[in-house]
Amino acid sequence: MLDIGLPELIALVVLALLIFGPDKLPKMIQDVSRTLRKIRQFSESAKEDIRSELGPEFKDFEFEDLNPKTFVRKHVLDKDELGLKEIRNGFDLRSEMSEVTDAVNGRDPEPAPHSAGGPDLLKKKEPLRPGERPPFDSDAT
C-alpha cells in the first residue's frame, strides 16, 4: 500500500529516534497503533450500520463498487450482456482509415467488403462540365 522499501524504513526509524528520543518512541508507537485501531473499528462499524440500514437486498453491497472504474468493470465489462466485445471486434479501423487516406490522396481505394451495392462515395468522380448540375442524392438530403 505505501510502497516503502528497506532504506526508507530505516531512514524513518532513525528520524523518529532523533525527533522523539529513545525514551518517548515506544509510547508514541503505542499511541499511533491505538489510534489506527480505533479508526479501523469506526470505519467497520460505520460500514455495518450503512449495510443494516440499506436492508437485506443490499447484503452483498461492497463500498469498493462506488468507485466508477470498479463499477464499470464489474457490471459492464465482465457480463458483456450488450455484446460490446463483438461490436468492438467488428470494427476494422485499419481498413476504414486506409480507405479515407486513399480518398484524400486521390488513389483508387480497394472495394470495401462492407459496401454491398450503393454508390461508392470515396471513389474520385469526374469533374463536372460547365453548366452541368451535380447528381441528386435523395439519401443525403
TrEMBL record:
Keywords: Cell membrane, Membrane, Protein transport, Translocation, Transmembrane, Transmembrane helix, Transport. Residues 121-141 have a biased composition (Basic and acidic residues). The keyword Glycoprotein does not apply. The chain crosses the membrane at residues 6-25. The keyword Protein transport applies. Residues 98-141 are annotated as: Disordered. It is a single-pass membrane protein. It is found in: Cell membrane; Membrane. It holds the Pfam family TatA_B_E. It comes from the Bacteria. NCBIfam families: PRK01371.1-1, PRK01371.1-4. Belongs to the TatB family. Part of the twin-arginine translocation (Tat) system that transports large folded proteins containing a characteristic twin-arginine motif in their signal peptide across membranes. Together with TatC, TatB is part of a receptor directly interacting with Tat signal peptides. TatB may form an oligomeric binding site that transiently accommodates folded Tat precursor proteins before their translocation. The Tat system comprises two distinct complexes: a TatABC complex, containing multiple copies of TatA, TatB and TatC subunits, and a separate TatA complex, containing only TatA subunits. Substrates initially bind to the TatABC complex, which probably triggers association of the separate TatA complex to form the active translocon. PANTHER family: SEC-INDEPENDENT PROTEIN TRANSLOCASE PROTEIN TATA, CHLOROPLASTIC (PTHR33162). This is Sec-independent protein translocase protein TatB. It comes from Streptomyces thioluteus. The lineage of its organism: Bacteria, Bacillati, Actinomycetota, Actinomycetes, Kitasatosporales. The gene is tatB.
